[in-house]
Amino acid sequence: MLSIDEQVTYLRKGFSEMIREEDLRERLKLGRPLRVKAGFDPTAPDLHLGHTVLLRKMRHFQDLGHDVIFLIGDMTGLIGDPTGRNLTRPPMTRADIDRNAETYKAQVFRILDPEKTIVDFNSRWLEPMKYEEIISLCSHYTVARILERDDFAKRYQEHTPISLHEFMYPLAQGYDSVVLKCDVELGGSDQKFNLLVGRELQKSFGQPPQIVATVPLLEGLDGVEKMSKSKGNYVGITESPEEMFRKLMSISDELMFRYFELLTNKSVAEIQQLRRAHPKETKMELAKLIIADFHSRADAERAASEWVRVVAGGEVPADIESVSIPEPSLRIDKVLAKAGIAASTSDANRLVKAGSVELNGQRVTEFISLTFPGEYVIRAGKKWKKVTG
């Protein structure tokens, strides 16, 4: 058994904020498993490494014997989370949400222990609510408090429309904590307002307020924007080991240590020691650690060997297709589109900005022009092409 101090130290790593740590210490002193919740709206079919920052913290609570609730927000998903948006989110269909929810259930157990995880859906209590119960729930929070939320306040000041149903999202998420009698709720740092609503609603319903713990948002492969599938700067947890390895080896040396902190079990002291090691070897170890979490160590080693053979060794796949471009000079994004590596010039533009394009084994970070005659090996994702003029 770990002491309270040891448990808090173990749990605190990787959190950006905890409200309040002293409350967590008091709950831990009770000597019972805490009820720890994290909610995921099934708005996309696949999870990426950005989602796993939160899943790893859930696993840490499991390691200490606490009850973890993986809550699928199939009803809140219908409302649409307004967090960080300056326009009303288009509604999802029930069919989309149900389909995505099934894939979430299949993917999360690559990190969470299935025998120690409670999977629940907030439609279980939100869908049967009568109109009078919804009105009663609304009476527990004020419009003034809702408008304290940064994105709502900004939209109100800019006279950007805010639909009334958007106000219901934080209330519905907060009510989840009341129904589940949560001791702790975890979420991304952008979810802080919603998590605090849950804390206030619990007080209003006569429950001890939950501890709120937030994790930082993981930067994508570009090292700038939040990891997102729509931005093309993501690593999906269901991608092949080779694809994951290639993407992870493309990140900057500084971002590498951010990934060590948020995506591995390395301690702060171990990460500091790694800063003195060779960057390339350290990055390869990072990639293998992450891939082993979602595949196996053997898969990670094979992916590393393939990367060394193909990328570091200068080799290319034997079946690479050759495309001729009859131009004296052409910008990289137009080359990608003409060669069929990207679906369009705008798609190519996105790939370059996300750092997903390699030219002769080097990551492309600017919109350079290629001159012809010449021969270039270009890769974006799983697509390889040899481009000649």
Q: Structural class of the helices, strands and pairings?
A: alpha/beta
Report the CATH topology name of the largest domain: Rossmann fold
Net shape = globular
| Number of helices, where a helix is a run of at least 4 consecutive DSSP H or I residues | 18
Are there runs of 5+ residues with pLDDT below 50, and where? Answer: none
Helix content: 40-55%
Largest sheet composition: 6 strands, mixed
Which CATH class of the largest domain is shown? Alpha Beta
Oligomer: single chain
Quote the beta fraction: 5-15%
CATH architecture of the largest domain: 3-Layer(aba) Sandwich
Q: How many separate structural domains?
A: 3
Main β-sheet, spatial strand arrangement: 1-6-5-2-3-4
Query: Quick check: average pLDDT?
Result: 89
**Which value, in Å, is the CA radius of gyration?**
23 Å
Span of the ends, CA to CA:
68 Å
Overall strand count: 13
CATH superfamily of the largest domain: HUPs
For this entry, give a set of tags.
389 residues; Rossmann fold; six-stranded mixed sheet; 15% strand
Description:
- The protein has 389 residues and is α/β, with parallel strands linked by helices.
- It folds into three domains: 4-215, HUPs (Rossmann fold); 241-312, no CATH class; 321-388, Structural Genomics Hypothetical 15.5 Kd Protein In mrcA-pckA Intergenic Region, Chain A, CATH 3.10.290.
- Helices cover 46% and strands 15% of the residues.
- It is built from 18 helices and 13 strands.
- The protein has helices at residues 4-12, 21-28, 49-63, 76-79, 94-108, 123-126, 131-138, 143-146, 150-157, 164-180, 192-204, 241-248, 253-263, 268-274, 279-294, 297-312, 332-338, 345-353; strands at residues 17-19, 35-40, 67-72, 117-121, 184-188, 211-215, 321-324, 329-331, 357-359, 362-363, 369-371, 375-380, 383-388.
- The strands form three sheets. It has a six-stranded mixed sheet with strand order 1-6-5-2-3-4, sandwiched between helices. It has a five-stranded mixed sheet with strand order 7-13-12-9-10, with no helix packed on it. Strands 8-11 form a two-stranded antiparallel sheet.
- A hairpin with a 2-residue loop joins strand 9 and strand 10 (362-363).
- Helix 12 runs antiparallel to helix 15, helix 12 (241-248) packs across helix 16 and helix 17 crosses helix 18 (345-353).
- It is globular.
